[in-house]
Amino acid sequence: MADKSFTTMLFAKSPSLDYYIRYASGTNLDHPSDASTRQAMDYFFYGTLCDPDVHRLILGYRPGPRQIRPASLAGFRRKVARGRNYPLLIRAPAGRVQGLLFTPRRRGDAERLAAYEGPEYVTRRLWVRPRGADGCQPAQVFLPASGMLPAGLADWHPQIWRRREKAAFVLSLHRQGSMPCANR
After folding, report:
1. What's the distance, CA 41 to chain centroid?
2. Distances (CA, A) of 140 to 17, 113, 119, 180
3. Is residue 159 helix, strand or coil?
4. pLDDT of the chain, 184 residues: tens digit per residue
């Protein structure tokens, strides 16, 4: 069950066969959440932040097992962002994305996550299911900003990313310093 403010996504193929994601809503969905709202709620990680080395680098510490746990998000699929080595989510009614549910515990966690995701992503409150839970709970999920972000046709697979892209990706984050951004 998705947040009522998150309505539908429309998909259209471009001549180059890339999908474009458009958010259709009567409200402005592309305003970033303020930091106080982000800090008070869990986050659902579905891409590079699922990797322990990446989330440790971004957060500046290794979250404990009660702070980060497996979860899933129904109604979406992971796709490779066109021209990038990280994912984005697209609406897929029969889809389910496995990821991690992260509970911020330190001051600055929300700001570090927002800086890492950069201006291409904004947070949305969606319902995720922690592994072993009877029901769903709300969590902040980073989704594409600006109404349009190209997604390639290929699904994004964490195992393939770790094998092919992780080393160079982590090196680029290290080179950026204390507040790295995935899309630099």
Report:
1. 14
2. 30, 11, 16, 20
3. helix
4. 443 333 233 233 222 222 223 332 222 333 334 444 444 699 999 999 999 999 999 999 999 999 999 999 999 999 998 888 889 999 999 999 999 999 999 999 999 999 999 888 889 999 999 999 999 999 999 998 865 567 888 999 999 999 999 999 999 998 998 888 887 6
